[in-house]
Amino acid sequence: MKKFYVTTPIYYASGKIHIGHAYCSILADTMARYKKLCGYDVFFLTGSDEHGQKIAQKALENNMKPQEYVDSIVKGFKENWEALKIDYSKFIRTTDASHVECVQKVFEYLLKNGDIYKSYYDGWYCTPCESFWTDHQVGENHICPDCGREVHRDKEECYFLNVKKYVPQLMEFYKLHPEFVPDGKFDEMYNNFIKPGLEDLSITRTSFDWGVSVKSDPKHVVYVWIDALLNYISALGFNSSDDSLFKKYWSKDVEILQYAGREINRFHSIYWPIILFALNIRLPDTIYVHGLLITRSGVKMSKSLGNAPSPLPLIERYSVDALRYYSVTEIQTGEDGQFTPNQFVDRINADLVNNYGNLVNRTLGMLQKYRNFKIPAKKKLIKQETIIANEKISEHIKLYFEHFNSYHISKAMHEVCLIGDIANKYIDETAPWVLAKDESRSAELDEVLATIADVVKCMSIMFKPVLVTKADKVLDALKVAADDRNHLNICLSNYCDNKEVSLIEPLFPRLKREDEVEFLVGMIDN
Length: 526
Known about the structure:
Layout: E1 3-7, E2 11-12, H1 19-37, E3 41-49, H2 53-61, H3 66-83, E4 90-93, H4 97-112, E5 116-126, E6 131-133, H5 135-138, E7 152-161, H6 167-176, H7 185-194, E8 201-202, E9 204-205, E10 221-222, H8 224-229, H9 231-234, H10 244-249, E11 254-261, H11 265-279, E12 286-290, E13 293-294, H12 312-318, H13 320-329, E14 337-338, H14 341-371, H15 384-405, H16 409-430, H17 432-435, H18 442-463, H19 470-477, H20 482-485, H21 513-525
């Protein structure tokens, strides 16, 4: 059986989850569900990044110990993922004893091999980003290039990762694997960091103690990004007494996909490969750097800026499927996108109400009215419209797989909607209500009803990676067996023949633009 390992970045436990985090987790969850439907053995990792100076400060502000503080934040993370139906295999915390042990072992191994050395760092530091920067990077105004906040001068003893040693190997790897970081996302890293001269990376601090201590030099704690990046292999038991998961899901025959937001591209596309080079283990197949959610005024949504809403009110008002669908369709994979009230209402009404929901209601309603809830058996095709529709749908199914396999979820969902357009047009062209009035055309009516039932079944299975509740409701109504709905062996087959269907409530109520825009504007602005 083919294997697939997908990860989200682990989210920094300095504040509550917002819809930007939800977007990344929905992408990873959707890919995990798709691969399962394709018959893969899937391991899906997410988690929380819990160390660092910023978290120590947050805990102090809340009169809590750091561990107590991160425990409360992680509880909220998991509640959000449950509401969003994020079906992860494991949730890793960087305070887990097994992770701490892995980080300490890796540090000592790299130190012994000369990939880590002790020196002094004298430069600019951004506390919110946990990042050191050079004079060139912060400019004359001493502004963090990632978050736009003012940085401060800092000097302290620390250990460095010998990055320069691996730059030639890194560049050779990118030359041989240009799609490792697709959509041109590595170009920015090369131009801004590698081309000007990549500096060795400071990887420990001594000015605070909330982190993984260095075993051989306990006054140092491991800098948060080295600690965080190792979660992807520590979660699998790398360098532990039980490394069976690591051997299974980090072997050469596994497809490994890792998602990262654009603001952490540098760490995933430069430093993470270098760490893996130093450990002499394989690299992932793809680091997919997705875009950021931005406000209507063009500012990045983030918990530190306090301008990003929670997904929970959206789920409660519109359903988890509506939020998941909007997230993966309105925002083109890999590009920045806005969460805007008008776009949200328009997307839900156009795709989920008018297209899919309307087709489901029309199909079930006509099966009730004309065939007493029973799907006719498909016989030799009579109507030219059916042959044409089937050919067009087959092409969109092919494209659906191509887009998903290249991780372009938004494009894959668009293909499903195009199938809905074809089916709704097919109904209008064949006019079942006219055929039903002429007994001599009963076979034609059977063909039309069987065809649209199969299209609804087909669309519902294709939607399952995103519409994690509504698609199954439709398949329940069509009496599609579990074995037939839980794989993507999709074609206009006869799964539905001679089944008795049942009616269901409308999947997605039509949204009233004025009311919903007012609600969404208030939620985002607050």
